[in-house]
Design goal:
heterodimer; A: mainly alpha; two-stranded antiparallel sheet; 2 strands; elongated; B: mainly alpha; Sodium/glucose cotransporter
Chain lengths: 81, 485
């Protein structure tokens, strides 16, 4: 996948995750999954997916060039406090 | 035994803080932001420890006891998503700008971005007013916990005094570096002790499955979201963790990072830390319904302490007490230091009270302000009502609603001082309006719809930022370039 496309998919995952956080589909579901109530298991697994999404975000969309430009040399332009 | 364990823990914490003093250079930058030298592991642990208060142990279990598993989605997994996003998009850029311009506080950040002294002063007042109740909750929490764990043998003022004294000791000794080192130790403590407590108690209950079966017999409603949480509440609650982007104490820790890449560990691993602390807390709260059904109000806040007294008294009670103290102090230390930094940098140094401040005087003043802030909060804790604990979500609402100002500073070239001022004033007005109506009602929502006030205040703040900026003169390009390349 081209770098630009990879970056876009990494960004796009964030609003998708935001929507997936609101799991109306398990709201009143009493069954269990992996030993826990499914409504709890879903959000534990959701947190694990967030870790993967953040790992990918950091790998393919790290704004190193922007940060480097902003950071410059330490104390480059000290401001009047 | 319980008090012995707690005292031993506090002594260890103090020792780490005092030891860090050996690395302290007598400069403002070293004292207030650890000379911008903090590495990835310590940054992760100190950010997490600073962000998580004792609520993650005691409050989470109490909420789970009351409303069931929904508390995890409401408060834990929402933070697992939103906090790393804020670190990635806001934290890294704040670090970069702060490094280049030598910034130490948010007020300096705002003054540098828009060149307005008045906006800086307005922000200073708002931040202090929002942060003070948060500190008060921490100091009072120490007293309440010690009283509960010792079954009333230790007066609450003693717990508050211990927390205050130890925090003053290591913060004034080691500055932000000492605070970060101690926080790393404390965060590890409350993560490990929370998990150990859960494993011991769940084992005695016959395992997770059996304990859940017993909860299902009497309170099946706790194993679903059901009526306990309105879907709109879940949706709007996701804005609350955005407060991490405007907490002065988190801002200071961002600035302390050695490099931008130091942020990668917190961005990726923050959800893991949240899961480690919150899953045991939520399960133990649920299981509290087995042996202690029907606890109401303040009594339900002590469900975890009651379970430990029943299943694993003495040593574990002491260890839990140490864990809760760790959670309290790892927030209180950074908060008091950030207030000390703000009074030193944004008031005394900025307005040149007493002339120009050399580096050594900055450090001395910073220490004095930390002592003054914590001592004042301790005295207030002796007279404040317990209802102050209800203020935490209101404090988060205010901080979260200020985030549009920071985002505009970093991403919107056209944003202006007038826009920032309009946004801050809108937060003050809407926050006050909702606070007057909602204080005292833990389930308050806008018009009873389930929507939390933070959604409206945040939207109002964003709108005011946009309208105020568009109606005022654009800022000078050379000023913008330092924040948006």
């Amino acid at each position: 996948m081209a770098a630009g496309a990879a970056r876009i998919t990494a960004y796009a995952a964030l609003p998708v995750l935001y929507l997936l956080h609101n799991d109306l589909w398990f709201w009143d579901e009493p069954s269990r999954l992996l030993g826990l109530p499914v409504g709890l298991t879903y959000h534990v697994l959701f947190s694990a997916v967030v870790v993967l999404a953040m790992w990918r975000l950091v790998r393919v969309a790290w704004p190193g060039d922007v940060i480097d430009e902003l950071a410059g040399e330490a104390g480059d332009e000290g401001v009047d406090p | 035994m319980t008090l012995t364990v707690i005292f031993a823990y506090l002594a260890a914490v103090l020792l780490i803080g005092v030891w860090s003093n050996r690395r302290l250079a007598a400069t403002g930058e070293d004292f207030f932001v650890a000379g911008r030298t903090i590495g990835p592991f310590v940054l992760l642990m100190t950010l997490f420890g600073t962000h998580m208060t004792s609520f993650a142990l005691l409050g989470a279990s109490a909420e789970s006891y009351r409303i069931g598993i929904g508390v995890f989605s409401l408060m834990a997994s929402s933070s697992a998503l939103m906090v790393p996003i804020v670190f990635f998009f806001v934290g890294t850029r704040v670090w970069a700008v702060g490094r280049r311009l030598g910034l130490l506080t948010q007020v300096q950040f705002v003054r540098a971005r828009w060149g307005s002294d008045g906006i800086g002063l307005l922000l200073f007042v708002v931040l202090v007013l929002l942060l003070l109740p948060y500190l008060l909750i921490g100091v009072m929490g120490g007293g309440v916990v010690l009283g509960q764990i010792t079954d009333g043998a230790a007066p609450s003022w003693l717990g508050s005094l211990l927390v205050s004294g130890v925090v003053i000791g290591y913060v004034t000794s080691g500055g932000l570096r000492g605070t970060a080192w101690v926080n790393t130790f404390q965060t590890a403590m409350f993560m490990v002790l929370g998990a150990v407590t859960a494993v011991l108690i769940v084992t005695k209950l016959g395992g997770v499955g059996q304990a859940l079966d017993r909860v299902a017999e009497s309170r099946p409603d706790l194993l679903i979201r059901g009526e306990a949480i309105h879907p709109l509440r879940l949706l709007s609650y996701t804005l609350i963790p955005l407060s991490v982007g405007t907490f002065p104490h988190i801002f200071a820790h961002w600035l302390s990072a050695r490099r931008a890449a130091t942020f990668k560990a917190p961005v990726v691993l923050y959800p893991v830390c949240i899961a480690v602390v919150w899953i045991p807390s939520v399960l133990l709260g649920l299981f509290g319904n087995i042996d202690f059904p029907g606890l109401d109000g303040a009594a339900s806040n002590s469900v975890l302490v009651r379970m430990i007294a029943l299943y694993a008294p003495e040593l574990l009670a002491g260890l839990l007490g140490a864990g809760v103290f760790a959670a309290i102090m790892s927030s209180l230390d950074s908060q008091s230091l950030s207030l000390g930094t703000m009074f030193t940098q944004d008031v005394v140094r900025h307005y040149r009270w007493g002339g120009d401040l050399d580096e050594a005087r900055q450090v001395r003043l910073g220490r004095l302000f930390v002592v003054g802030v914590v001592a004042t909060v301790f005295l207030l804790s002796l007279v404040a009502e317990r209802s102050i604990f209800a203020l935490s979500v209101w404090s988060f609402t205010g901080f979260a609603s200020l985030l549009p100002v920071v985002v505009a500073a970093l991403y919107w070239r056209r944003s202006t001082a007038a826009g920032a001022g309009a946004a801050i004033l809108t937060v003050i007005a809407l926050w006050t309006w909702f606070f007057v109506r909602g204080i005292g009602d833990a389930d308050y929502s806008v018009g009873g719809t389930g929507v939390m006030p933070v959604a409206v205040v945040f939207a109002g703040s964003t709108l005011a930022m946009i309208v105020g900026s568009l109606l005022s003169t654009p800022p000078a390009p050379e000023r913008v370039r330092r924040f948006i390349p």
